[in-house]
Amino acid sequence: MNQKDMIKEIDRLKKEKDVIILAHNYQVPEVQEVADVIGDSLALSRAAAEVDNKVIVFCGVHFMAESAKILSPNKKILLPAKDAGCPMADMITAEDLKKYKAENPNTTIVTYVNSSAEVKAESDICCTSSNALKIIESLDAENILFVPDQNLGRYVKEKVKNKNIELWPGFCITHHRVKGTDVDKVRKAHPDAEILAHPECNEEVVNAADFVGSTSQIIKYASESDNDKFIIGTEMGVLHKMEKDNPDKKFYLLSTGLICNNMKKTSLKEVYEALKNDQHEIDVDEEIRIKALKSLDRMLELS
């Protein structure tokens, strides 16, 4: 089946089976084009909680589809690429967190949504890169452990001076590999371009950026800015929407290493096969789901 026919079949199956397709900004262009909702983790979490469709095909990675199931237990959640995981999410386990909590009972646990359902279940509240600062500022807590992303945690910690924020030593392997030397090189090549970076990048990259924000915030900033040249310091998938929405602007990737292999595992064919065969359904143990739901609901309430 060629791509054009596959897209027609996807559209037909969506209507027949009452399906909505959610896709992260990092997905390949052809998958973004068949999606009904495209966004960052916060936007997709909201969509998963609000949509009325019976089935959600989640074009992202495992923890995202898990979150959708936590928020919408009566919906069928399908993950087209069953092995699309997240190395950062694997850098902390529920057992790690249980041990920490036993030793630090007065510390509030703030967990990035890039984490497993089991870790969310041991957390007080979740956050995304777009609302992490707001979430932590709103907490009536002096001592906070931020897990698992040390880079996002450090970015927030530098802005919140009245709280003791401890950082878990996890990181996004895609963003973390970008170095300050990459910024220096691209600055010289495009001196009139603004650098827009994700807070998952390491400290030297974040400090050198002109703007720091989540994927959706980066996309919005570029669209609204009067500048016409941008260096993008996040996963390359965002370039599709940015170039599509801003044909008169120029976008350059901060580093050729900004490719998430797990996000790129979802192809148009896998979306079609997930729809056709109802395959790779995501489920979450009910006891864990209820506990994890509290941390996600609390995040959504404050967002």
What would your notes on this structure say?
This protein is α/β, with parallel strands linked by helices. It has three domains: 3-84 and 263-283, Rossmann fold (3-Layer(aba) Sandwich); 89-173 and 287-302, Rossmann fold (3-Layer(aba) Sandwich); 178-253, NadA-like (Rossmann fold). It contains 15 helices and twelve strands. It has helices spanning 3-17, 29-34, 41-50, 62-71, 94-103, 117-121, 132-138, 150-157, 173-176, 180-189, 203-208, 215-224, 238-245, 268-277, 286-302; strands at residues 19-24, 37-39, 55-59, 76-78, 108-112, 125-127, 143-147, 164-167, 194-197, 211-212, 229-233, 250-253. The strands form three sheets. It has a four-stranded parallel sheet with strand order 2-1-3-4, sandwiched between helices. A four-stranded parallel sheet has the order 6-5-7-8. It has a four-stranded parallel sheet with strand order 10-9-11-12, with helices on both faces. The termini are far apart. The mean pLDDT is 96.
